Amino acid sequence: MASKMETLWRQAAKFSSRWSHNWGFSAKNFEELQSAINEIRAEDVGIDDMKLLRVRLGFAPIFNMDIYQDPDFTVSVFLLKEGSTMPLHDHPQMHGLLKVICGTVSVKTYSLEDTQQHDNFQLGDYVQATVHEPVICDQDSNAMVLTPTDKNLHEITCLQGPAAFLDILSPPYDGNEYYMGERPCTFFQPLERVSSNRVNLRIIKAPHDFYTKQIEYSGVPLGYS
Question: How many domains does the chain have?
Fold first, then answer.
């Protein structure tokens, strides 16, 4: 019988395959992927008290656990120390799912007014975005969804931790279905409100205090055997 992670991997591969994308976006496959990720718990990815203690006592604000990567999608886990923040960043032309599996986080999301700007970002430029209501997520919350146009930018703060979330991105940052090179990750600084639900953002360098440290994955290996 397949483990929950193996089932998740198969559904992610089904949704993310460039062969399936030739037929266009499949809402059914994406819904099935959401259902699969909502079943995942901390123990399914090998997170135990020792790993959480390592995060709590470590110097890095955020730890990263790489689980699987191919040209179509990535599966990983991020572990955040209490009080740490993953700064506001984007996912250009990517679909993503974020499932908290332990701890509690606050997620702030934004949608760019002009999604085509992803191709022309320059440091210091200003862009406008729609602001969505912040969401508090814990292990009982369903996965948050980002698409190429909706809630594509997000900032994640650990309120009670260490916190961990499982992250699936398709396609990955380091490639796309057209083999046109790496997708850049751009960071943003919120500025003044333009209206009640719109804000100006300034493109910035990655904050100097943002860095991650690798932690090993000890769950079920994923991929074709």
Answer: 1
Helices (H), the chain: 4-16, 18-21, 27-37, 49-57
Q: Which domain holds residue 88?
A: 4-212
Q: What is the pLDDT of residue 21?
A: 47
Residues whose CB is less than 8 angstroms from the CB of residue 188 and which lie 6 or more positions away in sequence, other chains included: 88, 89, 90, 110, 127, 153, 201, 202, 203, 204
Residue 222 domain flag: no
Q: What does DSSP assign to residue 82?
A: T
Residue recorded with tokens 């046109």: 180
Whether 225 is covered by a domain: the verdict is no
pLDDT along the chain (225 residues), means of 10: 89 72 65 94 95 94 94 93 96 92 97 75 90 96 94 96 93 61 84 90 93 92 75
What is the pTM assigned to this prediction? Answer: 0.90
CATH, residue 175: 2.60.120.10
Give the angle subtended at the CA of 139 by the CAs of 137 and 142, to the nearest 5°: 65
Rounded distance between C-alpha atoms, residue 6 and residue 15, angstroms: 14
- Residues in CB range of 22: below 8 A, 6 or more apart: none
